[in-house]
Amino acid sequence: MLIGSYTLVSPVILAPMAGITDAPFRRICLESGAGLVVSEMVSARDDLRETDLSRRRYEPDSWNPIPVVQLLGADPRSMAEAARYAQGCGAAIVDVNFGCPARKVCGMACGSAIMANEPLAREILEAVAGAVSIPVTVKMRTGWDAGHRNALELARMAEGAGFSAVTIHGRTRSDLFRGEAEYETIANAVKALRIPVVANGDITDPDKAQRVLAATAAAGVMIGRAAYGSPWMLGRVGAVLSGGADPGEPDLRQAGRIVLRHLRYHLEYWGETLAAVRTFRKHAIRYLERFGGKEPARALAKESDAGTVRRMLEEFFELEDGQ
Ligand SMILES: Cc1cc2nc3c(=O)[nH]c(=O)nc-3n(C[C@H](O)[C@H](O)[C@H](O)COP(=O)(O)O)c2cc1C
């Protein structure tokens, strides 16, 4: 799959998930077989740019050959300025968020709310595309409610403005995360556009990914929640989509090595602080639960010492020697 001048090694993309897909998790996902990993959304407002979190979200990851910064905002000028800033920081691709269903983020109606205002959407798309020389992409929902599925119109707008790819989550804004994703709107966009369309929503495993690609003929798939606690799912899906065999779930010790590497990256990136242990615990609990460790997950949820968390994980994943 091509995005502008970039060739992805796999058409499986890690979805941006605020609060989950921070740099250490993205690194684990890239190493687990994702073809591209998208940063968590960052506000385009320049007055918020100097916060530690914003700075980290603009910062390109040294290990990442194609860093993608996702921008959220409703003002075309500040979106354009933020895109220029992201390019200046070293982003390889800028992604525009037309998908966030929150009513207001940072006091602004943005994300998928913009899908209900097509003239504004056009202004934002044209401003962002005109501001940078790197590829720009957009992620959207199918529309704002069941009666207004305008993803196709917006995707055409993006293509006309010079965008290099479009990702569509098969739900409307008013669906939030309820019900099942539908793929017909995505299939229609694939038929109508020349640029790559990426299908997103409820892709949980290689079989579902194959069915979604068969139904949509999309150029790639984007996976979010199914990678949380299972980053190896990205590699499993990638293997099958490239015509190979499904390597299956890792065994306990193989998974444990990935989990401990994730912990190491996390602490290197965020420091050995209480806050860092807390943010890692969410991931650790997911990993433990995936392997049936409900009790250890409950015990780990109360731990605030990095060394103790590491030892608990080593014990559960039978890696007492850390190997
Ligand atoms: C906790 C959480 C945070 C999310 N944050 C973002 C975000 O920052 N930007 C964005 O475009 N989508 C965001 N999303 C939506 C996902 O990228 C994705 O479109 C959605 O989860 C559907 O894909 P999935 O079924 O594979 O999870 C978020 C989703 C979740 C669950």
What key phrases describe this protein's structure?
323 residues; alpha/beta; TIM Barrel; 8-stranded parallel barrel; 12 helices; binds flavin mononucleotide
Element-level helix/strand string: EEEHEHEHEHEHEHEHEHHHHH
Major β-sheet strand ordering: 3-4-5-6-7-8-9-10
Specify the overall morphology.
globular
What fraction, in percent, of the residue positions are helical?
40-55%
What name is given to the CATH topology of the largest domain? TIM Barrel
Bound molecules: flavin mononucleotide
Q: Look at the structure and name the CATH superfamily of the largest domain.
A: Aldolase class I
Rounded mean pLDDT is 95
Q: Which radius of gyration do the C-alpha atoms yield?
A: 19 Å
Describe this structure in words.
The strands form two sheets. This protein has an eight-stranded parallel beta barrel, surrounded by eight helices. It has helices spanning 23-31, 52-58, 76-89, 118-131, 151-161, 184-192, 206-216, 232-241, 252-270, 274-290, 294-300, 306-316; strands at residues 2-3, 6-7, 12-14, 36-43, 68-72, 93-98, 136-143, 165-172, 197-200, 220-223. The chain has two domains: 2-241, TIM Barrel (Alpha-Beta Barrel); 252-316. It is α/β, with parallel strands linked by helices and 323 residues long. The longest helix has 19 residues, at 252-270. Helix content is 43%, strand content 15%. The two termini are 36 Å apart. It is globular, with a radius of gyration of 19 Å. The protein is built from twelve helices and ten strands. α4 links the parallel β6 (93-98) and β7 (136-143). α5 (151-161) runs parallel beside α6.
